[in-house]
Amino acid sequence: MKLFKEILFPLIAVVAAFIVGGIVILIIGDSPIQTYKLLLGSAFSWPDGIGYTLFNATPLIFTGLAVAVAFRCGLLNIGAEGQLYVAAFAAAWVGMKFGAPDPGNTFVSQIVHLPGIVLVPLCCIAAIVAGAIWGGIPGLLKAKFGSHEVINTIMLNFIAVALLSYFTQYHYKVPGDPIMQTAPTSPSSNLAHLGKFIPGLPARIPLNLAFILAIVACILVYIFLWKTKWGYEMRATGANPSAAEYGGISIRKQIILAMAISGGLAGMVGINEVLGYRHRYYDGFSANYGFVGIAVALLGRNHPVGVFLAAILFAILLRGGIFVDAFTMHVSKDIVDMLQGIVIVFVAAEAIFRGPLKQFGLLKKAKV
Amino acid sequence: MRQIFTLQLLFSTIRLSTPLVLAALGGLYSERSGVINIALEGLLLAGAFTAASVTYYAHSPWVGLGSAIIAGAAVAAIIAVACIRYKADQVVTGTGINILFIGLPAVLSGALFLSSGSTPQIPRENLLPVLSHFLPFMPAWRIFTDVSIISLLALVIVFVTRYVLYRTPFGLRLRAVGENPEAADAAGVAVNRMRYVGVILSGALAGIGGAYLSIGQSSLFTRNMAAGRGFIALAALIFGKWRPVQTMLACLLFGFADALTIQMQGVAKLPSGEDIPVQFIQMIPYVVTIVVLAGFIGQSRAPKALGTPYQKEK
Q1: Is-contact B207 B47, C-beta < 8 A?
Q2: Partners of B130 in the β-ladder
Q3: Interface membership of B268 toward A (CB under 8 Å)
Q4: CATH classification code of B7-127+148-293
Q5: Residue A246, number of CB atoms within 10 A of its CB
Q6: Looking at beta carbons, which residues of chain B come within 8 Å of A170?
Q7: What is the CATH number of the domain that holds A140?
Q8: Which residue, A139, A159, A342, A354, has fewest beta-carbon neighbours within 10 Å?
Q9: Nearest C-alpha neighbor of B233 from the set B80, B69, B94, B50
Q10: Do B290 and A336 touch (CB under 8 A)?
Q11: Is the Cβ pair B103, A165 closer than 8 Å?
Q12: Is residue A138 part of a domain?
């Protein structure tokens, strides 16, 4: 019954969002059925559809997990966006400075030339640590001064964007490059595309080892939250802070730890982006991954399995948006942002569905 | 330096602060009633898009402004129903609304105007008028000192808000449901009804702010044109300690930082001859907010019941 409810509400929220979206599409003058066919159907072709969907899902799994871990501790991390930017830059910086330079990089000098086997893990660690620091700051501020993490993470998002745009523009951009991006990272820091290992998957599809890392992260988050003492303490803090404190758990420590882990997970987006895809830091690369991560976490009920599935769903939409843009008369790919927004509102206000569900006998009346 | 600190900078500050003041005052009504309003960004966008589209068809900025107010209030009503009636998480709901209004205006403008997210240009005579428009003569300095009528309106609303909040029964009730809803309820105040009013007012005011962005400051709606102003307004509200006049001053400060970045571009040089990176000035409002929230510059205390839905005792 419990599992049934865990699946039922997200499912209803998605269906309801699609119905509302369908009405909008109808008003605009397109066919909702055709639009949704394009939106959902284009993701399942092999190899392009599936390859790109899983590639798009990778950052959303990381940010979804990030938001979920913070949620389990009773915190809302709206700052995944800033954390993943800082992390991506850190990964790119290590990639530029610590490996044999890319031929396109005649500008940023190297400290050492590390081989890939050392450089790749180092870049990954840099991303995770940078994200953890950027996420840990609002955790620390909350623990020490009681200032609300929501406001601080929003502010840190803007600070991150400004700071990184400064570093990119003034220090790490190849002079004359019209694009706001850093010099390329060392080729030894590249993460292999999965096309190398999977027959039939062409190497041009950027799905890379970071996706495997995302699955591993899901498993680790599950083990951490439900199978370790630390995870138990974190969830206890989220469920009932005063009871947790009474039981001898230091809430402050939990808050800092949860925000740092959350930031570290968000930071792993940088691994996919820099090491697996662009091989440089590209200013403003994130397609709202941090904010969509909130939708992913909520829809996935803050559980790694749910996060994984929700990330796949949103990735399907992202991929489908391109086809909606091309093959419908009026609807643009912005329909995806719209649907995401509606899903978030419906998941947050799930109580809307309780009344009708009770009427249809799908939900017992006992609990409100 | 003389090139930077000019009269132009002053008026640029006023122009850039106007949408912040309106959105922040909107946030004030909502948050004083106990409902976090993180959706100011989305409300600004809703107002801006509505104002531009309606003005384009109706050829009247006043009809556009009115529609923007209605649109803002309507979107806020959705937030209110979700957060008050259905006790949805206020921050999450607001985030959803923000994402929704990145997408929805773009979808609609794609359908209405066959564009990728913006409305067509609106002719100058159909924009919200500037103050000198009402003067019988044409002073030579008017180009530099022109301020929109909405800026004046914002100033008036600040003082009206101060009066309403501290000198009327309505204001007392609004503050009461934000501070101590149980006591307000016991005293016969309809807590949730007050909250509905607070949230819907916030939408209406942010709607005006949005209209100013699209048919006051510029002449069309462009994708995501609020560009974080909703969040700066939220920061100003906190910096202003949830009080009308202080909040306005905070908005002016943040507007000044913004004006300075524009003014400085390519003008100001470091002694070494390099440009001063504008990014550092852009950061000021955000850093200030974090510092203020941490209590380094006086305490900024939120309304006590902010963020908690009210459940009547049974």
Answers
A1: yes
A2: B148
A3: no
A4: 1.10.3470
A5: 9
A6: 277
A7: 1.10.3470
A8: A354
A9: B94
A10: no
A11: no
A12: yes
Q: Cis before residue A241, ω within 30 degrees of 0?
A: no
- State which H helix or E strand residue B181 sits in: helix B181-186
In this structure, is residue A128 part of a structural domain? Answer: yes
In a domain, residue A182? The reply is yes
Please identify which residue in the block is written with the tokens 């391109």: A322
Chain A environment of B86 (Cβ under 8 Å): 349-352
* Set of chain A residues whose Cβ sits within 8 Å of the Cβ of B234: 151, 154
- What CA–CA distance (Å, rounded) separates A9 from A7? 6
Q: Using CB atoms and an 8 Å cut-off, which of residues 142-181 of chain B contact chain A?
A: none
Sign of CA dihedral B132, B133, B139, B142: positive
Query: Cβ of B230 under 8 Å from any chain A Cβ?
Result: no
pLDDT score at B278: 80
Residue B43, chain A, CB below 8 Å: the answer is: no
B199 reaches A (C-beta below 8 A):
no
Put simply, the answer to whether B293 touches A152 (Cβ < 8 Å) is yes
Tens digit of each residue's pLDDT (9 = 90 or more) over A68-86 = 999 999 998 999 999 999 9
Residues 101-140 of B with CB under 8 A from A: 101-104, 106-108, 110-111, 116-117
Q: What is the DSSP letter of B205?
A: H
Tell me what percent of the residues of chain A surpass a pLDDT of 90.
63
Q: Average pLDDT over chain A, rounded to whole? A: 91
**What does each of the 314 residues of chain B score in pLDDT, given as a tens digit?**
555 567 778 888 999 999 999 999 999 999 999 999 999 999 999 999 999 999 999 999 999 999 999 999 999 999 999 999 999 989 889 999 999 999 999 999 988 888 878 888 888 888 888 877 776 666 665 555 578 889 999 999 999 999 999 999 999 999 999 999 999 999 989 999 999 999 999 999 999 999 999 999 889 999 889 888 998 899 889 888 899 999 999 999 889 888 888 777 666 666 666 667 888 888 888 888 888 778 765 556 778 888 888 887 65
Distances from the Cα of B184 to the Cαs of A159, B163, B170, B306, B310, in angstroms?
Answer: 40, 20, 12, 14, 11
Q: Say which of A158, A332, A345 has its CB closest to residue B97.
A: A345
Domain range for A193: 2-359
Contacts of A147 in chain B (CB under 8 A): 290, 293-295
Please check whether residue A207 is in contact with residue A195, taking contact to mean a CB–CB distance below 8 angstroms. Answer: yes
User: Is A337 close to B290, i.e. CB distance below 8 A?
Assistant: no
Domain count, chain A: 1
Task: Check CB contact of B50 with chain A, cutoff 8 Å.
Answer: no
